[in-house]
Design a protein that fits this description.
The chain contains seven helices and eight strands; from the N terminus they run E-H-H-H-E-E-E-H-E-H-H-E-E-E-H. It is an alpha+beta fold. A three-stranded antiparallel β-sheet has the order 2-3-4. It has a three-stranded antiparallel β-sheet with strand order 6-7-8. A two-stranded antiparallel ribbon has the order 1-5. A hairpin with a 4-residue loop joins strand 3 (77-83) and strand 4 (88-95).
Length: 194
């Protein structure tokens, strides 16, 4: 399935960064074992670049990806880099977390603004059986008790979105509804009905 790079998240995003890494190795004359390429083509080779600085940090440095807080879009982080492989002057990536922005920027600079992702990865976005809080955390949201005296709770996703409520259940319900309104239905996410 073709997905816009700006919409990649979770396993499809990690898979696309892995594809960039494999392409980088091959372009530099490094031999990549055939089984790694086969596993990647089947959607099996997808290290967790979007959540692990140890994996993504060296790529950010090598690709000269710059990260900055973003106040101009609905996202909290912006990333940009030169894109010499695509004959573009720059590539950009945006995300609620710095690593997501950096991953999207890396993918855009090497693979372009759309990526063909194995269907099996899209199907892995099935959240059936998960609680609202587990789903929110999958998308980078956190629920925090702010003030024990006034029993107030806040839900945040790196400053792009925040709500304050009196109960934890209200915070989770409001954030979940916001998420449902924002998620693109074409991305293939499957959510439980509560």
């Amino acid at each position: 399935m073709k997905i816009k790079t700006a919409d990649l998240i979770g396993p499809p995003l990690n898979w696309a960064v892995a594809k960039c890494e494999l392409q980088h190795l091959q372009n530099n004359g490094d031999r990549v074992k055939e089984w790694v390429l086969e596993q990647h083509a089947q959607g099996l080779h997808k290290p967790d670049y979007s959540e692990d600085w140890m994996l993504m940090g060296p790529i950010i440095q090598r690709e000269e990806i710059s990260l900055n807080r973003d106040n101009e879009t609905s996202y909290s982080w912006a990333a940009w880099t030169p894109a010499p492989l695509r004959d573009e002057s720059e590539a950009f990536g945006y995300g609620n977390l710095p690593l997501i922005a950096a991953c999207r920027c890396c993918v855009e600079s090497i693979l372009g603004d759309e990526v063909e992702v194995p269907d099996c990865l899209i199907e892995s976005n099935d959240f059936t059986g998960k609680s609202k809080i587990e789903i929110l955390r999958s998308f980078g949201y956190e629920v925090t008790k702010v003030d024990a005296k006034f029993k107030s709770y806040i839900v945040e996703d790196s400053e792009a979105f925040s709500i304050i409520t009196e109960t934890e259940d209200e915070a989770i319900d409001e954030a979940y509804q916001f998420l449902m309104d924002e998620v693109d239905p074409d991305l293939g996410y499957i959510f439980p009905s509560f």
